[in-house]
Amino acid sequence: MLKRNLLKRALSALIFVIVLLGGILINEYLYVVVFLLITLIALAEAYHLFEKTGNKPQKYYGLFLGLTVWLLTFFVARDDIPSISYFVAIFLVIFLFIFEIYQDREDHFLSIAFTVFGIIYVVIPMATLNFIAFSGINKGVFTHKYLLALFVILWINDTGAYLIGSKFGKTKLFERISPNKTWEGTIGGAIFAFVAAYVIALYFKSLTLPEWMIFAAVTVVFGVYGDLTESWLKRRAGIKDSGTIMPGHGGLLDRFDSTFFAAPMIFLYLKIIEYFFL
């Protein structure tokens, strides 16, 4: 049984990596399909998590709103439409209130709040991947290097943290929220991430070695906080995994929790480099 579970976990992880790398490396059209699906599934899992706490977001309209926001961001980042197009999303938010009038429940404010919270927590961070792929120092042309670097560093950091934490972990990082995370594992993961950034710097010369090291530091720090935040939300909901789409690994919310915080900060970091150094 243990061997079968390990095999299931390994196969699930392999498929996940292949699909994600395909979306990053092949072309922008596959990128849209892969990352839009990931975003919507993660948003659906977030709404399910909120329901576990007794809240009732407008999940179907929230998914439609999330789809719209992500696609708007994609086309703005690609320079197909002007940024003023975001006003479409603002108008669509109005319908949240209109639809809520017809719901027979007491917590109308919480319903609207948690519907919007799902968009802010999942969709907007995932939508910033569009800007990392297209805008700023990429000159509006789809490029995989920053997306690839972001996810490779996140994966290497997670793997390093698990290996070091399992072997040497003693000092709890944030026991109230995530009892299994330790300072030893966190520091070990960061060291692995810096090694990965060094290797990336050998192949991608668009950033200097120090800039890639800062890239890794930003990714690790905010990735850890993203992970802790999702652990806190699951703890409040009383669940272990956000979903079952990845056997042995949980849901996509579990797999991308670090990305939700790391991606916006990496986009900001790249824009700072563009403004001051390019």
List keywords for this structure.
mainly alpha; globular; 278 residues
Describe this structure in words.
Helix 6 (145-168) crosses helix 8. It is built from ten helices and two strands. The chain has 278 residues and is mainly α. The chain has one domain (2-277). 75% of the residues lie in helices and 3% in strands.
Helix content: over 70%
User: Ends: how far apart?
Assistant: 55 Å
Shape: globular
Q: Helical element count?
A: 10
Major sheet description = 2 strands, antiparallel
Q: What is the subunit organization of this protein?
A: single chain
Low-pLDDT residue intervals, each spanning 5 or more residues: none
Strand arrangement within the widest β-sheet reads: 1-2
Tell how many strands the DSSP assignment holds. Answer: 2
String of helices and strands: HHHHHHEEHHHH
Number of domains: 1
The structure class reads mainly alpha
If you average the pLDDT, what whole number results? Answer: 89
CA radius of gyration: 19 Å
Question: Beta fraction of the residues?
Answer: under 5%
